[in-house]
From TrEMBL:
This is AraC family transcriptional regulator. InterPro entries: Homeodomain-like_sf, HTH_AraC, HTH_AraC-typ_CS. SMART domains: HTH_ARAC. Keywords: DNA-binding, Membrane, Transcription, Transcription regulation, Transmembrane, Transmembrane helix. The chain crosses the membrane at residues 12-28, 40-65, 71-91, 106-124, 144-162, 183-208, 220-239. Residues 287-391 form the HTH araC/xylS-type domain. It comes from Kordia periserrulae. One of its GO terms (molecular function) is sequence-specific DNA binding. PANTHER family: ARAC-FAMILY TRANSCRIPTIONAL REGULATOR. It comes from the Bacteria.
Amino acid sequence: MHFGFGFKSSTLLIFFVHGIIYTLLLLYKGFRNEHKSSFWLAGFIFLCTMYITPFMLGYAGWYAIQSYREVLFFVPFQQLFLLPPILYFYVKSSLNPSFSFQKKDWLHFIPAIIYGVYSLVVWITDTMIADEFYFYADGRDKDFALWYQVAGFIMLLAYLIASLKHYTQYKKNTYETVSFADAILHVWIQRFLIAFIGLLIIRALFFVINPEWNNFGRKFWYYLAFSILFYYIALSGYVHSIKINLQFLPKLDANLSANFLAEANQKEKETTSEAEDFTPADIEMQKQLSHIMENERLYTNPNLTLFDVASSLDTHPKKVSNIINKGFKMNFNDFVNTYRVEEVIKKVNSDESNVKTLLGIALDSGFNSKSTFNRAFKKQTQQTPKEYFSSKA
């Protein structure tokens, strides 16, 4: 098989090979551990790999050879209408392990299905019906048609923004519901979504400052940047799936279900425009909440959720959330960590640090990791633990 090895083709070939490898690894992990998100990520990485394929092969000389050029023409490598919804459902399945694909979700794939039918019609017409090329009479690959590239760009940007909004809402709900938010935030998802939007902005600038965007040779640096980004997504996603299996994470199905997050989100929408006064009953419940936190030391449970606290008060979780938001002016995660930080300071001042390490004291106080402890401590005291206790020595 012909392949002209040069700087551009060889560079993209490296990312192509790694893309295929990570696709297979994620599929294997998906089957082995029944991770739905791994299947979605595998599909996304595969589509990204196919996205750079025509350029890798083009720089390798395929467009200069008739039989190879026809392969590039008729195979729709750049699935610009399929890649955005795949990305969106990967984000949704990562943030909600119980996510299941519904019939209505097929609506997201209608543009991709239509383009797939169009590609099939082009192939049948030009290879089986017409005596000579009809659709490809101009000798241009349809995947690079301006209307398709622009439509795909807009669709991907829209789905990226929708994914980022979904993550932002998930992050807010998580901080309002559990005391171990840092363990389940999937921060890297937010990072790559923002990075992907940045990449699209760069591509938009190419359209503006490079009127010869259709010039094949000038696109290399954009596709190199795209390759680096999807490689980062593949590597981070795979490592993240491994960490989930290796580290202990609270089982959320019993206490923190996706149904509750949806319910909390819905109730938030319903009450956004209804300003509720802080009633005497609310003040009394606030006192009860403080009492059980201090006397029953619920905060020492590293897996404490809003459900647990509501159960102790014999009330609805949403009621407890409102009390914390309005009475203490903070979210549930910060509320619990405030008690944990105070507990750490109290134990250190009582010379317990002579027996245990600072991390050991933090874990006994309810924190589940050193990084979470450091962030919570600095947020409350505006100093790192080291700075704080050094100044008190």
